[in-house]
Write a structure and sequence with these properties.
The structure holds 2 protein chains of 2 kinds. Chain A is α/β, with parallel strands linked by helices. Chain A has one domain: STAS domain (Transcription Regulator spoIIAA). Chain A contains 4 helices and 6 strands; from the N terminus they run ββαββαβαβα. Chain A has helices at about 25-30, 55-70, 80-90, 100-110; strands spanning about 1-10, 10-20, 40-45, 50, 75, 100. In chain A, helix 1 packs parallel to helix 2. The longest helix of chain A is centred in the middle third of the chain and has 16 residues, at about 55-70. Chain A is globular. By secondary structure, chain B is α+β, with helices and mostly antiparallel strands. Among the domains of chain B are: about 5-140, Immunoglobulins (Immunoglobulin-like, Sandwich); about 585-705, Golgi alpha-mannosidase II (Immunoglobulin-like, Sandwich). In chain B, the strands form 7 sheets. An 8-stranded parallel beta barrel of chain B has the order 14-15-18-19-20-21-22-23. In chain B, strands 1, 2, 3, 4, 7 and 8 form a 6-stranded antiparallel beta sheet that branches. In chain B, strands 24-25-26-31-28-29 form a 6-stranded antiparallel beta sheet, with helices on one face. Chain B is elongated, with a radius of gyration of 27 Å. Classes of the chains: A alpha/beta, B alpha+beta. The interface of A and B includes residues 55 and 90 of A.
Amino acid sequence: MEVQTTTSDNVTIVEISGSLDANTAPQAENEILPFIVPKCLLVLDMSKCQYVSSAGLRLLLTIVKRLKTTEGKWGMAGLSEEIMDVMEMTGFSRFFKIYDTVSTAIKAIQEEA
Amino acid sequence: MLRIDANPTHEYSGFNLRAGKPLPFGATLLADGGVNFSIYSRFATACELVLFEKHEAEPFATIPFPDEFRIGNVFTLVVFNLDFENIEYGYRMDGPYNPAEGHWFDRTKILMDPYAKVIGGRDIWGKPPDWDNIYPHRSRIFFDDFDWEDDHPLEIPLEDIIIYEMHVRGFTQHPSSGVKYPGTFMGIREKIPYLKELGVNCIELLPIHEFDEFENSRISPITGERLVNYWGYSNVGFFAPKAGFAASGKFGMQTDEVKALIKDLHKNGIEVLLDVVFNHSAEGNENGPYISYRGIDNKTYYMLTPEGYYYNFSGCGNTLNCNNPIVRNMILDCLRSWAADYHVDGFRFDLASILGRDQNGAPMNSPPLLETLAFDPILGKCKLIAEAWDAGGLYQVGVFPSWGRWAEWNGKYRDDMRRFLKGDYGMVDAMVQRLQGSPDLYQWRGTNASVNFTTAHDGFTLMDMVSYNEKHNESNGEGNNDGGDDNESWNCGWEGTTDDVEINRLRRKQVKNAAAMLLVSHGMPMILSGDEMGKTQLGNNNAYCQDNEISWIDWTLPNTNAEIFNFYKKMIAFHNSHTVLRGNKHFQNKDYVGSGYPDISWHGPKAWYMDNSNGEPVIAFLLCGLHARGGTSKDDYIYVAMNMHWESHPFELPKPPEGLSWHVFANTDKLPPEDIWEVGQEVMLEDQSEFVVGPRSVVILVGKVNSL
């Protein structure tokens, strides 16, 4: 699992690649949390994330809940169909703002901001 | 804040350990990253924790519990740095092997944790197992932190619920279901709009605890199909949901999927009851496998004869020792977990009379387990429903120890309704009781003690009840010897399916008659899933092993049998619209609000006179709307005439109060669309003095302000 961040038009894009599970979630958490600051604009790019386990879903939900407390704008993009389905089955999807692509997510966030 | 006990104290083969906490039992994830393992055994002399990588054939580690980590009869330890998502664990127990004394210890067996909240091994329904697996049903570790937001069990009053009894897999497995993940909890979520359209507000799920569909699996000699344990009345573990019922089971996320379903159902005003099977386990009798309890503490978990054999009050080989204090606590812990962690609204207890037997099998007067459940604070608002009998001959309908909390599946309601429906003579007195919520059985407990049903998973579907005189269970491969013979069914003139127009019409009418009777009876109505669309099981009255179209809901039926589906929807809406049909106290058969009418009055072909001297299956009753809910609610007057005789009978109508006139809501003798009307759109009768009720027909009238 790797976390890479870039910035585009004031939006921080956090790309999570590899597997997000109980082993990698603590590292992902450490690397993503510094970007969750008041009124941040953030896109989680999941297009290179092949697998999200139960613990991975929990990390994503934790991030989303922290984003809410910062009044940040955020979205998630590039999810595989399988990960989307798992999120739906387990009830997590209702907490996430999900977009097809990073660019549509950025556009939506900027409009929202 | 740093905790002293966040650090290991022992080391074994590279694993860091420390003494654990005995409670809670099971495997608990700790904030410091450790996992607390705790398991009870009174008679074990030693215990080992066995760890597997997920799905691996052989364990990667075995950690003996150090003697100093044992507290009382509990083995407990904390293991640090486990990859908890990817391991499976079990136990090996050493101790005496002496079946005559009740001891079955075998230190070669790997045993599932009785408190496992997730169980692996049957992750995908029907996937053939590895029969050589040394540990087929595996305890897993789970993080229990579902975000319920503001969800809360609905606590719908008992008198206001309509129960819909259904099977998770059968509900959407049929190709016609159109759902993305057929046969799963997720599939039910996709069908919530259907449940709302039907109008039910409570689903009762056949067992969803982990069971082994391959238990007693075999090939049907008739169809050549593999027969499985489809119903699941045979628990492997009590705390874990059935992985094979979850679309996410292959990812081990079944607990979240069940919770997401319950949360969604609650949002839509629908409660969830679980059918729980605490009377026996899947370990069978002396010839059964070691899964868990037998190897952990056989003498505690099972009722044993003085010679050490398993009592079989369940009909399934063994009997859980429900009134042993340890087992009692396990059952309580389990139900609390389902109520608190899963927000389940209540439980229906399979063969519940077993829960009232002592450790020698004798029925008790005040069974401690039943009392504990009745008064438990966490279960305080849960619905508790007993199947008030067992396979050992104990039949407690009407006398199940209740403490005012327990309701019962009213088996007498079922039997009497069926006899009346097929036109048996001499049933009127019984019907007077059944329609009133069975005061003869539940005089002091009110109508909420009675779950009224005509059909349930066990037995014929309603359409089969009017299509078969005899069961046809040959495809179960037991020589048609399984399943009940006391069906009280009538085939309407031909055994099984037919093209005969008149017979089919009569069958549809009988189905509608049964629906009407159920939904005008006081007590909690329960509908068997599929009955509302005329589902058949081709005469199979015990389809426990049929994972195929015999059992699955065919979603073309609401169209094919639109007449029946439409009737059910409108009857349910009628039931929901009229508080006078849903009182929680028994009728007094007198006027206590000064309306000039008794709360309920009995009639027949002559108004105000119920003549049952000739035994004909003919009865009518009038409900006074001003007595609704004991006079606290105002409703319409409702008159119901039931003629199950093969000839039509004129019924003299009791005069409604001044200013009101009789309007027809339903008349099963009529063809659609005149068989039933929308609530509020009832049609005023031209003749207000008499109604000719057709043969084998039910008529429901509503006394309303003159609509002409």
